Amino acid sequence: MKKYTDKTLSPSERAEDLLKRMTLEEKVGQMLQVSYNALNPVDYERYKKRGIGSFLHALGKERDDIRKKSAKTRLGIPPLLGIDAIHGHALLNGATVFPSQLAMSCSFNRALLFETARATALEVAADGLDWTFSPVLCIARDLRWGRVNETFGEDSYLVGELGKAVITGYEYDGNIIACAKHYIAYGEATGGRDAYDSPVTERKIREVFLPPFKKAVEAGCGSVMTAYGSIDALPLTANKRMLTEILKDELGFDGFVVTDWENVKSLVHKQRAAKDIKDASYLAVEAGNDMSMNTHSFYKYVLELVREGKISKERIDDSVRRILKAKFRIGLFDDKERPDKSVIGCENHRKLNLAIARESMVLLKNDGVLPLKDNVKKIAVVGPNADSIRAQFGDWTFFSHPLPSAIAKPRGEYHTVLDGMREVFGGDKIIFEKGCDIFGHGGGIEKAVDAAKRADAVVCVIGDCLAQNGEYRDRANIDLTDPQTELVSRLCDTGKKVIAVLVNCKPLCIGMLKERCAAVIETFNGGAMGGLAAAELIAGRFNPSGKLSISFPQTSAQMPCYYNHYHGWHGGQYVDLKKDSVYTFGDGLSYTEYAYSNLKLSKKTACKDDVIEVSVDVKNKGGMDGKETVMLFVNDVVSSVLTPVIELKGFRKVFIKAGETKRVTIKLNIDDLAIIKSDCTREVESGDFEIMVGANTRTYLKTVLKVK
Ligand code: NOJ
Fold it and tell me: Which residue, judged by its Cα, is nearest atom 9 of ligand 1?
């Protein structure tokens, strides 16, 4: 028996044995990934027959054909079939479409996120695929950026924690490989311009952007994707410091690095950092990329470069070893038994989807109108996103990828907000008028106003659309569009209670909703069950528990407005703008009230390698059971470099019955209080740290911890 076919050996041992049997061509072939819709059919066929490392976005017949042909290659090395299963396996019509990453991050629920990832992995694997390009570990601090919806929000700690939960979920059953992306500081590009230069230092990278990737590596993440952009003018694709010295050598990442789409080509044509593709291929491999996504001549040039002695054989072996290990890890060489196709869009996943959609909704304002009383007779449901499943799904579904479709119809069960309102309150109570489009008045505002006048309550569903979000779609201005602002104002002028429901990819400037509406609910992209969850929230069928993972500015010019900014702004606000954001990280109401008391530290003076316990009593003072996310923030009182005014270092979501008090304990690792000094070294500096535990960044109990 050949050693690499021996299932009793470890993936590393098997990869080592297979590597010895491979020709240089076969090895370099493993370092290439091609997309089925980016090639002419003749070339594509050649790659299938030759056998390469990976294909992406191949579904249905394509996928089967690739598998068949790769099995006939000399060594029969199976390709990794990759897919953007970003919030569910949503490029496949009929699979479960979970809320967007941004929406789910508002649940602050690690366990539920783990479950959604696990469910997604089952659906991906059942569909014959092996690798998802998820999760996104970028930090969303400039809201102009088109890809904010793909993130877990603005806080590095939260991003790392939820990223870890999702990676563990994806890889839990050993079916698929996860991919932490986009490495690194991709969301911090100048002006929120996608794929552009991020003017950040290595110190800042270590402080803000690296920690989530460190957690991903610790969670055993199988792959990492190199970002499109550059850092302080050096393209990530050519950045040996970031990819090899920090990611692989320092963090000990032993998976493989794949470039983003055509990164190698972009070094030549977009970034002008290489004279030709051969030069670019050299830079990419030497920097530490193991697989090139979709620059096909990479294969030919890397072969040449090795033959010319410019790239060493050892360097190639290192990449191929990493890729093969991933394939062995998920059983690709072992006639792997895949989950039954019936898991795709199944009832269990539908229930899970509803559970996460409920916990993702954030109730931002409620003057008492919610929950709507049972005796409400007529409800006007209006607004351009009330019946838009496209807007509710958001980016990265079969509507938008691999190719945009204007006519696709969802195959699985879904509920828009209008559907949900009809199901929860009864169709005869609902009057629907769209009112306007996102961009146009469409002549419907008068009809919507008329409907509002005839109703006891108004649910106005507004937000944004796909044309305003995603790659290539950054916005200079994140206001609600004019027709929607006019619609809301006209509805409020009727004197009826207006409940604003936001279906949008990312934060918008919604000061006017806060001022004029009776209630505001943020759903972001709530996925297939989002509309039902929103209606249930309005009816009080569950107690809202979502909290914002991202802050909302008053105007676009107030960006960035993330909560954990440094001390030191002279004046602390603009002369022509009130202080603070409209809504801030951590904000979110419920239908009950929680009271915090009795904050205690297991030690008042700690050593630098201690883990201490921070505990607090949380009482549910209201009349409804609920889940509360208890947040632990710190402030480093004096530090040798600037530190945030307040910053999350722990959280726990707990269920508390009406009237009950629970003692909640959060572990605080003193090492997490480390700062990154100017010389990039990491140190917990001795001194005082304020420890704040509470519901959000403004409501908390405070004590001081001394670190020796
Ligand atoms: C481009 C995107 O930046 C990345 O997130 C995605 O995974 C790949 N293309 C593959 O579609």
Answer: 261
| Residue 481, both tokens | 């569009």
State mean pLDDT over 12-27.
Answer: 97
| pLDDT score recorded for residue 173 | 95
Q: In sequence order, which residues have a C-beta less than 8 Å from that of residue 500 and are 6 or more positions away? A: 460, 462, 488, 510, 513, 517, 519, 520, 521
Q: Which residues' Cβ are closer than 6 Å to ligand 1?
A: 56, 84, 133, 181, 260-261, 471
How far is Cα 487 from Cα 441, in angstroms, rounded to an integer?
A: 9
Q: How far is CA 405 from CA 95, 378, 397, 559, in A?
A: 17, 36, 10, 33
Backbone phi and psi for residue 391, each to the nearest 5 degrees, phi listed first: -65, -40
CATH of domain 594-707: 2.60.40.10
Atom of ligand 1 nearest to the CA of 86: 7
> What is d(CA 685, CA 523) in angstroms, rounded to the nearest whole number?
40
**What pLDDT, in 10s, does the model give residues 646-689?**
999 999 999 999 999 999 999 999 999 999 999 999 999 999 99
Over the chain, what is the mean pLDDT?
96
Q: pTM for the complete prediction? A: 0.97
Cβ proximity of 618 and 596 under 8 Å: yes
Superfamily for the 22-339 domain = Glycoside hydrolase, family 3, N-terminal domain (3.20.20.300)
DSSP states of 313-382: HHHHHHHHHHHHHHHHHTTTTTTPPPPPGGGTT-HHHHHHHHHHHHHH-EEEEESS-PSPPTT---EEEE
Nearest partner of 582 among 604, 559, 612, 609, judged by Cα: 559
State the catalytic residue, choosing from 84, 127, 260, 636. Answer: 260
**Catalytic site includes residue 580:** no
Name the architecture of domain 349-558. Answer: 3-Layer(aba) Sandwich (3.40)
